[in-house]
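Input:
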Amino acid sequence: MLTDLTLAEARAGLRAGRFSSRELTLAFLGAIEALNPRLNAFITVTAERALAQADAADAALARGEHAALTGIPLAIKDLYCTAGVRTTAGSRILAPFVPSYESTVSANLLRDGAVFLGKANMDEFAMGSSNMTSAYGAVTNPWTRRGDNRALVPGGSSGGSAAAVAARLALGATATDTGGSIRQPASFCGIAGIKPTYGRCSRWGVVAFASSLDHPGPLARTVEDCAILLGSMAGFDPKDSTSADIAVPDFAAACARGVKGLRIGVPREYRSDGMAPEIEALWRQGLDWLRAEGAEIVDVSLPHTRYGLATYYIVAPAEASSNLARYDGVRFGARTEGHDLIELYENTRAEGFGSEVKRRVMIGTYVLSAGYYDAYYLRAQKVRALILKDFTDVFQQVDALLTPTAPTAAFAQGERMDDPITMYLNDVFTVPANLSGVPGLSVPAGLDAQGLPLGLQVLGRHFDEETVFAVGAAIERAAGFPALPSIRAGA
Amino acid sequence: MSLDPATVRRIARLARIRVDEAQVTQMQAELNAILGWIEQLNEVNVDGVAPMAGGSQGMAQRLRVDAVTDGGMADQVLANAPDRAGAFYAVPKVVE
Amino acid sequence: MAYTIEGSSGAWEVVIGLEVHAQIISRSKLFSGAATAYGAPPNSQVSFVDAAFPGMLPVANGECIRQAVRTGLGLNAQINLVSRFDRKNYFYADLPAGYQISQYEHPIVGSGVIEIELADGSTRRIGVTRLHVEQDAGKSLHDQDPARTFVDLNRAGVALMEIVSEPDLRSPEEAGAYVRKLRSILRYLGTCDGNMEEGSLRADVNVSVRKHGEPFRTRCEVKNVNSIRFVMQAVEAEALRQIKVWEDGGTVQQETRLFDPSRGETRSMRSKEDAHDYRYFPDPDLLPLVLDEDWVAGLRAELPELPDAKRARFIAEYGLSPYDAAVLVAEQATALFYEAVARGRDAKQAANWVTGDFFAALNRLGRSIEDPPVSAAALGGLLDLIADNTINGKIAKEVFEAMLETGEPAAAIVDARGLRQVTDTGAIDAAVDAVLAANPDKVAEFRAGKDKLFGFFVGQVMKAMAGKGNPALVNDVLRGKLQ
Ligand SMILES: [Mg+2]
Ligand SMILES: [Zn+2]
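Output:
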């Protein structure tokens, strides 16, 4: 089955002429047609465009021209602006929005010959860990518990991207990670995903949630596939003032490096929080694999990491409250009329935003407001500085860190919905990397007792994604993870 | 610190989000729960710590060359407007 | 004498602070590549960044930063080598992002000073609190439609310098002089064109009143006043209003007001009634702005001579009166013109001609110093003819008028019209003799002690010589013959 190929295998097949991009694209479009009604992984499917891009890719291949992704069908998270294609950010307020510009990251993928199948579902404005906050309906995780058919969440906010890749509706996908939104859904859906270093991938054209925490990055079924995608997505962009002018290394090559001689840190603070025994067991297993491959395991401390989540829930809503002010019904998007301009704003935003977005905009407005700024926002910025310092210190001792990605496996739709804080706890292991900007990768490493995938997280130094890929690929090889969800193309 | 209904209304007004009374009560409870949970940051000693603003560290602002490279596309910037009058965006009348 | 306003309860002092928004001269906007030209069709100079479309990000324009630093140097102000951009959050139709990118906690320029000259010849030093760089908003048009406001974002994102003064100003005259001086400095630096009609320079006028010796009372901010005359009128109108409020037993409320020039009064701005809570925080899309010390030193070294320095030099080098010097340096173009005329000539005479006949001609013909009806070289040519006694001062005025009419050089006009002054003593002798012979009674009166009549004889002789007599020779000959 063409849809079972990894991205690297598909690329080799295209280059060898074993199949065309049109055939490959048709296979994925067929899978989407068959499964998207069940999974709701795509908000918008762009079949015609995809086939035109596939034909262009085939023509290029026929001329002997192949770029990194020529003819490779991908899903694009609906947070990335795509020229001429509706971009909703999972929100009702952007339901009618069609940008005439292409985000830098998706433009880089198109430059390298990729085929876009459509726009992937997501939590509204990337705010969520379950994909339940999308205005376009929940996404269903292609995995189910053994002997239990209840629909599970794919994680969030890049839940549509993760579900699409896991169910083989795309070879890979773009995603974004503000507090764990690449790594947590990767873990929940049994696939790989990397949040690169802050500044590695341009944020230009990606709808902003929290500017200092937003990281574009890829999701794919293997670590190597993520490396190939990131190689195309990354790079200096003069249109983003926070983009780093640093050369993009050969990430895919780094996957084969091995871990011999690397020092891998185990942050002891991650153990607390009443961790599930099977997650702790998997973590220990991961460390054993790395030790067996020649790495040295070192106990380390990130003393402020336990304050990451609370810090995050000040910084992210604060930035979001400002970033989302532009959705006012005047220049683009949905409008709900009012008798005067203020009413128009209030009605538009009350109707256009869902409750999680409103909640965060309210929190963010409050923590920035007069009299509260110092107590909340300024204090959070200082704790953030301490969290960053923890990482800088620890990376003097070790080359990478290994932790679980998420405290649990995927949960059922509707579970944990009553209390926002329980939902926020999903991000407890992933948030520190967003606050500090260090790269983090989730690699599927095993199954829990109910047969659901669990991921391990590899964290590295700023701009040292190569080591992160090397460690992630070593775990992947050792785990031999059979990533076969019950709902998948051809199953 | 705990929010009262008047503060919830004031914040909603600042954020330009219409809220009805039932929502005020619900939001008050939710926001107070979140803010209460956030108070754990008060345990951290932040004396003498320089606040970290932004995600990039150790980088300074790059400056662009002063050249006209954009604009000249009124139709495109207006194409998504819910209401417009010719080449203007239109909103309900504002009295200064 | 300190300026006060007499109320029913006695004298009131007026306290004024100004926030001047000056548009930085640049081709493109502060954070986008869209053009800044004035008067373009609506929304034609708007990028997706300016209209705050989803996913758009700001990238700072280096020229705007350079101009702000040069302005700070021109105001003798402290340059902050590390500054930041912050977001000022509020909703308004012409503020697309829902926030203005500005500098709040860490402005690029710290405290400086501006020296102002007053009509009585005195000077005062006015403190500048800070200068920061920020985006302009778009333009709302309220009068195009009965039910709707139209929004044009051409101006949205244009770079402004906000220059904030200390509350050091104490009269409408001082407020006017401050804006005039600031505008002059900005124009010298070439950092703002100072065009108030086009909105390149606008002032928010903060006014309060108090009794002598009191601490400051509540102030009101009169927004966006767009001419120097209106600044002065707004100060007076707002001060009078506040005095009335206080004297009627009321309390002045801190608020934002608008000046209505047609009624000569200020009124509360309804749209700004909402209690403001701008929720400033560092813009996470922008990194700290770090300036290189040597680069700043280079800019300092290359600053042009500014009005104060130039005025001092004009007084020292050309012996001008402080008043003439101030008039000549107010505009850089005028100073340049003057120096071109004065160089190598009688500098005081040059000053008299430039500020006298030449300025009068500019006014009369509606021309500007940039487009003068007579060039500096041509005016210098005229002065040369006076200096070498080719013509006298009176004829020179006639020649100047002819230069305005014909555009011909002074020498050509003098030759063509036979205006050379007569220095031939024979001809002067003859003219003097004829005048004395024709007025024997006046000669007798003069000789009897009526000295004042000397002027009459000079006038008669010059008239007989069609104004061309060399005045000094005419005087000499007359004096000799009348003795
Ligand atoms: Mg102001
Ligand atoms: Zn301002």
